[in-house]
Amino acid sequence: xxxxxxxxxxFGTDASALLVRDGRILAIGHDDVRELAGxxxxxxxxxxxxxxxxxxxxxVHAVFGGLELGLCDLSGTTDVAExxxxxRAYADGHPLEEWIVGGGWSMESFPGxxxxxxxxxxxxxxxxxxxxxxxxHAAWVNSRALDLAGVTARTPDPADGRIDRGPGGxxxxxxxxxxxxxxxALVPAATPADRLAGLLRAQRLLHSLGVTAWQDAMLxxxxxxxxxxxxxxxxxxxxxxVSPVVGALWWDRERGAEQIPSLVDERERFTAGPLRSGTVxxxxxxxxxxxxxxxxxxYRDACGHPTDNSGLSFIDPAxxxxxxxELDRLxxxxxxxxxxxxxxxxxxxxxxxxxxxxxxxxTRPHLAHLQVVHPDDVRRFRPxxxxxxxxxxxxAHEPQMDELTIPFLDPELAGRQYPFGDLHRSGARLAAGSDxxxxxxxxxxxxxxxxxxxxxxxxxxxxxPEQRLELATALRAYTSGSAYVNHLDDSGxxxxxxxxxxxxxxxxxxxxxxxxIAAARVAITYVAGERVYSSRDx
Length: 538
Description:
22 strands; single chain; Urease, subunit C, domain 1; 3 domains; Diaminopimelate Epimerase, Chain A, domain 1; TIM Barrel; 29% helix
């Protein structure tokens, strides 16, 4: 059945009518388009609401997010007493589970960002507990979990992580980065059925938020991370995966170029139906809050004095250009986790090496997170054809930023955080992602922060106001920008021939003040012209 949209603004155009046929936009315009409608055309009256191309998330962990929705969920609060109440309630409600597993806690909830095992021991003393924090770079465990894993004062820190310790060296209950694997290796793995259910749960949520396609940033994972690729392959072959998905194959940071042939095999294996896996994910560094993001200047201590720590490089910066060059030659896209400015520079150097060796290509490398970017490197994105993949929801004053980040960064670095405005003005292409379940998967929440640099509903100072984006720019990052990164060139815009991946909002955010952008909600979502979500008052 054809669809005719009329009666409201259409993003990026001056059109007043749009016709969909066979899953694609047949025509967009005015009366000439209305005349194409037939007796069986379904007319969608926008009633002044905004019609947009579907949002695309360029960096998300959909299966992890969907799984966590069914586990011990600590998200949505920073109150320690509430965390403990939920853990106790989950344990009581699941008496047969060997481990209590979940996540979503915030570092701001604990002094220095480090949780204590004694808190968990009070509510679950008899079973091991393993709880990821909201950014998935640390875990909170109880004494039973540490005992089972044999983690003691004598256990050395792994090269890519840290065991949080008390004055005598005893583990206190926090495990940073690669140290999580010491305990996580014992956690019962999710079953294939669990992972598939998590993916389908995530797809429903993403559709309700207007997300019609995405790039999952961790398929075929190693280094202690669970692998979720089987869920995508099953859903892609049985028809339950409705949205186009790009799978980013994981670069094993404990191996070198010898893994490239296996990545070629995985690309073929995990390309089916709407799933394509021609991307390789390089996790170059950690996060600033636990001092593992790779910076060009050392972190400060609690008194403001420079330390001898400038963060970690998870992949040898000298070897990375060779890896990226060979993968680029084989047609792979590089997707970098680059949070600190040293990691950003390392990633751009690798892209530059690939360009020098292979010449221009359409592999479309992109750098995600970009918390700190040196001004010299801001100017490199456009000539290298590297896309800035932003997680805008993080660019605001909140306790994790104000208490656990800014005081410990070199002041010059602290003033260069999330430089979206500078990147845009330099001509860099912007894409957008959520990193869910690290943060909310709602694009409208992220767009709100990109425009305002203040969290919705918060009365705080604007965070580096010169880095704000215009509303249209932020929306393009989440539509055409991410479509470009995902190689979905027939989507992301309202134009004839494009896929009819469409979103109807309950209002036009441009018609109100910027402070109300986050109040907008998704009314209807379409994927290839099929309605996959409707709100109650759609």
